[in-house]
Amino acid sequence: MSTYAGLRVVVTGATGNVGTSVVGALSEDPDVAAVVGLARRLPKMSVPGVEWATVDLSRCDSPEVLDQHLPGADAVVHLAWRFQPTHAPLITWRSNVLGSIRVFEAVARAGVPALVHASSVGAYSPGPKEEPGVSEEWPTHGWPDASYCREKSYLERVLDAFEPRHPRIRVVRMRPGFLFKEQAASEQRRIFAGRHVPGPLLRPDLLPFVPDLAGLRFQALHTDDAAEAYRAAVVGDARGAFNLAAEPVIGAPELAELLDARVVRVPRALVRTALAAAWHTHAAPASPHLFDAVLRLPVLDCARARDVLGWRPTRTAQEALSSFLSGVRRGAGMETAPLAGSRWG
Predict the structure, then answer these.
(1) 306-336 burial string, b = 16+ CB within 10 Å, else e?
(2) d(Cα 121, Cα 149) in Å, to the nearest integer?
(3) In sequence order, what are the beta bridge partners of 148?
(4) Is the predicted pLDDT of residue 269 greater than 50, yes or no?
(5) What is the model's pTM?
(6) Superfamily of the domain at 7-181+220-246+298-314
(7) By C-alpha distance, which of 316, 312, 229 is closest to 26?
(8) How many whole angstroms separate alpha carbon 29 and alpha carbon 50?
(9) Structure confidence by residue, pLDDT tens digits, 301-310
(10) Beta bridge partners of 300
């Protein structure tokens, strides 16, 4: 008789956009017996088979803080990430980079067999904007002026050194495009547009044109589809990096069709100047350096995820964006601190 009791998986950043979807996908997998969701603040929501615990990775200098949650874990999915404050990069560095290193070290101390790390398209060096896109072999040096890209790239180097030191730990690096779902829309509006941009203003009839900027081509993916790739990585035996994105690549024409708007050619310098002014005056939280990075991100080739993980998105990139826009207008959210719903403020 088999004594297999199922996997025990620990998920950091379990209450955010990606975390809530990953926890949900894992809880529904028959091969997963238990999920431990770690977050800075306990959520009000309850998910069958999921136990919640509080851990602030920017503050847990004592190894026991993380170590107590890892005994018996078969995999750790590391998703925790802090996007703000963009004017204080030392704060995000402590949380994102030093916090991630603490997770990696705790995984090694506990001898957890698998580490699945949330990297990003933002880790990639500037590259081509046309299909078929770059493979996972493309350099991951990021765009150095943008703290988000700089931090994601630095952690790629950390894992480059981690893997040879710990060959028995199966390391997976997920590099998705932009992730959207309706329930995360209010959080993403606050992160990128700020708390004082009313969600109801994001209506097609109030957005008469889409700026056609040089380099404005990016890839989107529904967060639930990304979660399926994470689940497949946890329950399988894959190693290495995986690009994740849905079709088609989004540019000005696709945005215009989605918003029923016209495409208008706009000088890139004009838009960047406006964004920089808004950021420097604290009127908007998104850094102009991130804008620079987005215009240089390469298009991703996702063949490896299809071939190795057996993964395919079930929604198009437009459907992912539509769910985000619907969520922003409705003030959609979830019962977690990061995803709290709000239409304004």
Answers:
(1) eebbebebebbbbbbbbbbbebbbebbbbeb
(2) 9
(3) none
(4) yes
(5) 0.94
(6) NAD(P)-binding Rossmann-like Domain (3.40.50.720)
(7) 229
(8) 12
(9) 999 999 999 9
(10) 134
Q: Which of 178, 177, 174, 179 is nearest to 304 (CA)?
A: 174
Greatest alpha-carbon span in the chain: 69
**Which residue is it, tokens 């150095």?**
144
Amino acid at 103: V
Q: 276: which strand partners?
A: none
What is the 8-class DSSP label of residue 134?
B
Please report the sign of the dihedral spanned by the C-alpha atoms of residue 25, residue 30, residue 35, residue 41: positive
Q: What percent of the chain has pLDDT over 90?
A: 80
The type of residue at 69 is H
218: left (phi over 0), alpha (psi -120 to 50) or beta: beta
Tens of pLDDT along 154-194?
Answer: 999 999 999 999 999 999 999 999 999 999 999 998 888 76
Q: What is the pLDDT of residues 188-211, one digit of tens each?
A: 988 887 665 555 555 555 667 888
The rounded distance, in Å, linking the Cα atoms of 198 and 69 is 40
Other CB atoms within 10 A of residue 137 CB:
9
In eight-state DSSP terms, residue 30 is T
What would the mean pLDDT of 57-69 be, rounded to a whole number?
83
Q: Where are the domains of the chain?
A: 7-181+220-246+298-314
